[in-house]
């Protein structure tokens, strides 16, 4: 992920990274360098609290992590609902990053609050 963020920063793109604010809630915070990331909740690097908040409607592309996904773009996350609560607020194109071995042929169980991603990228292929 560092290489992707670094390349976007070098290209002069506005880059934001999620920050866990409280239980189930995350914000997108702008960074100008990977050096601005620090160890946060759950051991994930995140921007400092003083980093500018980028509103969800200002975002063009979201890269979404998962434990596994199905062919329809639904994902199994890490259980906090952070991304589901965030993605419902944005019209950004969503790219799900998933290991090919964790891309399931059978549909995952779904709830009304689950948001499918637009595209799935594995190390082997891209699914739209």
Topology:
Elements: H1 2-10, E1 15-22, E2 25-31, E3 37-39, E4 45-47, E5 53-54, E6 61-64, E7 68-70, E8 75-76, H2 82-87, E9 93-97, E10 103-104, E11 119-121, E12 126-127
Parallel strand pairs: 6-9, 7-10, 9-11
Antiparallel strand pairs: 1-2, 2-5, 3-4, 7-8, 11-12
Query: What are the low-pLDDT stretches, counting only 5+ consecutive residues below 50?
Result: none
| Beta-strand content bin | 25-35%
Shape descriptor reads: globular
Our measurement of the CA-to-CA distance between the termini, rounded to an integer number of angstroms, reads 21 Å
Number of continuous helical runs: 2
Largest sheet: 4 strands, mixed
Count of DSSP strands? 12
What is the share of helical residues?
Answer: 10-25%
Secondary-structure element pattern, one letter each = HEEEEEEEEHEEEE
Query: What do the pLDDT scores average to?
Result: 93
Radius of gyration, taken over Cα atoms and rounded to an integer in Å: 15 Å
Q: What structural category do the secondary elements indicate?
A: mainly beta
Strand order of the largest sheet: 6-9-11-12
Provide structural commentary.
- With 128 residues, the protein is mostly beta strands.
- It is built from two helices and twelve strands.
- The protein has helices spanning 2-10, 82-87, and strands spanning 15-22, 25-31, 37-39, 45-47, 53-54, 61-64, 68-70, 75-76, 93-97, 103-104, 119-121, 126-127.
- The strands form four sheets. A four-stranded mixed sheet has the order 6-9-11-12, with no helix packed on it. Strands 1-2-5 form a three-stranded antiparallel sheet. A three-stranded mixed sheet has the order 8-7-10, with no helix packed on it.
- The longest helix is centred in the first third of the chain and has 9 residues, at 2-10.
